[in-house]
Amino acid sequence: MAMIQVQDLTFSYPSSFDNIFEGVSFQIDTDWKLGFIGRNGRGKTTFFNLLLGKYEYSGKINSSVEFNYFPYPVSDPSKYTYEILSEICPQAEDWEFLREIAYLNVDAEIMYRPFHHLSNGEQTKVLLAALFLNEGQFLLIDEPTNHLDTDGRKIVSNYLKKKKGFILISHDRNFLDGCVDHILSINKANIQVQSGNYSSWKLNFDRKLEHEEATNERLQKDIGRLTQSSKRSAGWSNKVEASKIGTTNSGSKLDKGYVGHKAAKMMKRAKNIESRQQKAIEEKSKLLKNVEKTEPLKLEPLKFHSNELVVLKDVSVQYDGQTVNKPVSFKIEQGDRIALNGKNGSGKSSILKLILGNSIQHTGSIHVSSGLKISYVQQDTSHLKGQLSDYIRDNEIDETLFKSILRKMDFDRIQFEKDISHYSGGQKKKLLIAKSLCEKAHLYIWDEPLNFIDIYSRIQIEELIQSFNPTMVFVEHDLAFQQKIAVPGTQTILKI
């Protein structure tokens, strides 16, 4: 057991005037399974790079362990998988690699396939297996779930639960609950470390905010009452002081010593009230700094002239003459929210693209009602680049509405001036979702919309869909999101 100590860490990028971290101090145990959470753009991956020594910073990071990073950069993906794994962990024996990948439900035969022939999920699993075989290293795991299907996430979560000595960035609430024993959270005002999984952290975080809100309300009332008392006491003091030059009703002179003493008591009382008021203001200023405000999002789904929108009968996707999935049949009616569930490579995205009218080889039939307007959020964001103003113009988006949605999804105005290629993965996904929310459509097709998106925005999107009930077909492996949005009975979780 050893400690990683962060003392008075301050860092900003050379091109930015704002600090990503400012005077941050905390420590973590190298035996912990640490979940790392926070809003997109708060500095989670930046912190990983600081631990890896990639940037200069002020303050201290003290550690007796060596850090390694996932996803591991594979220089030559055309090599066989066993060669890649041997490069990552040269001291491991073949049987150790086979044991680790077996824990992850990966067949041994993939060791003798070129690495680039593996699915994204298989690549994730074998790289994690090799990295954990490096003894004495502390693993920095950056969003491993983005290429894992629902079953794959359960398998990897169970695998990580048996390990120790890692920090895991993930926005999948179920995944975190299954494998971490501490949470490192980057909040608006500070960084906190807490024992427990995500759910226990969220419960404690919400309770603290509820307590702060109640305290804030009480202090606001106290400040208002003290302000009025201070004004009255000051007024009384001024009146008494002014009476030094007056006389009584009978015409005799006032005792100026008595009046002066009374005025001094009134002034002292006023100052005491002001002191208590200032103390209450100072206490209030310490509260609610970590409140994550998420303004409600809006959507304008269109009503179609008939109830039935799309019908698929015995549809199987084919690539190079090979059938990808068993025949699938379903129909989309107004108000449906259908989740397509299945393993990576089972044809889910291809079925979405077939509904969109893409030319993909398939068997069976697809009927899309004439005049149906569809809004699409695609899985890939690699095409996003250039200025935001150009993106708005090219896609004929209402600029005011679009930027308003992005602001509600935690975009700073300074992001509007940056090249889109410099956005984080989560910010790029938010861009695609914001575009979809600007579009009035009969049907919304979203393909893994939550990849890289922070937990707060996921909850915000869940609330949006539950409020406006758009007709949707989507692929999303975040089980918490899937269960809230596609409820069996009225909505559907469809296994592909």
TrEMBL record:
<keyword id="KW-0175">Coiled coil</keyword>
<dbReference type="InterPro" id="IPR027417">
    <property type="entry name" value="P-loop_NTPase"/>
</dbReference>
<dbReference type="InterPro" id="IPR003593">
    <property type="entry name" value="AAA+_ATPase"/>
</dbReference>
<keyword id="KW-0067">ATP-binding</keyword>
<dbReference type="GO" id="GO:0016887">
    <property type="term" value="F:ATP hydrolysis activity"/>
</dbReference>
<dbReference type="InterPro" id="IPR051309">
    <property type="entry name" value="ABCF_ATPase"/>
</dbReference>
<dbReference type="GO" id="GO:0005524">
    <property type="term" value="F:ATP binding"/>
</dbReference>
<feature type="coiled-coil region">
    <location>
        <begin position="202"/>
        <end position="229"/>
    </location>
</feature>
<dbReference type="InterPro" id="IPR003439">
    <property type="entry name" value="ABC_transporter-like_ATP-bd"/>
</dbReference>
<protein>
    <submittedName>
        <fullName>Lincosamide and streptogramin A transport system ATP-binding/permease protein</fullName>
    </submittedName>
</protein>
<dbReference type="Pfam" id="PF00005">
    <property type="entry name" value="ABC_tran"/>
</dbReference>
<feature type="coiled-coil region">
    <location>
        <begin position="263"/>
        <end position="290"/>
    </location>
</feature>
<dbReference type="InterPro" id="IPR017871">
    <property type="entry name" value="ABC_transporter-like_CS"/>
</dbReference>
<keyword id="KW-0547">Nucleotide-binding</keyword>
<feature type="domain" description="ABC transporter">
    <location>
        <begin position="310"/>
        <end position="493"/>
    </location>
</feature>
<feature type="domain" description="ABC transporter">
    <location>
        <begin position="4"/>
        <end position="213"/>
    </location>
</feature>
